[in-house]
Amino acid sequence: MHVIIWEFTVRDEHIQRFISAYHADGDWAGLFRRAEGYLDTELLRSSDDANVFVTVDRWESAACFEIFQEQFGAEYQRLDALFEHYTSSEKKIGIFSEV
Predict the structure, then answer these.
(1) Would you tell me how many other CB atoms lie within 10 Å of the CB of residue 30?
(2) What are the φ and ψ backbone dihedral angles of 11, each rounded to 5 degrees?
(3) Which domain holds residue 93?
(4) Structural domain total, the chain
(5) pTM strictly above 0.85
(6) CB-side exposure of 7: number of CA atoms within 13 Å?
(7) What is the CATH number of the domain that holds 18?
(8) To which H or E segment does residue 4 belong?
(9) Per residue in 49-79, pLDDT tens?
(10) Are the C-beta atoms of residues 37 and 64 closer than 8 Å to each other?
(11) Other beta carbons less than 10 A from residue 7's beta carbon
């Protein structure tokens, strides 16, 4: 399994829209579901800071994610630009593999 984890600090006025877009049934997961090898997305909210969220995207393999990027790169960039103003910071925590 190939897992990509991102951390976001979300602006107060965009929290509900962010949740809608980044939730397991949101815009991002909708795009990912179009690709073979996508497993799921999990959205987590910090218990310490209500503006901090983490997404966990799971893919069957790194190769599946690479193929997704090749096939849907333009759409990925479009969504990224559309939602970038929802956050004050965005950081890739890392890419992980199942042990």
Answers:
(1) 12
(2) -65, 140
(3) 2-97
(4) 1
(5) yes
(6) 7
(7) 3.30.70.100
(8) strand 2-10
(9) 999 999 999 999 999 999 999 999 999 999 9
(10) yes
(11) 16
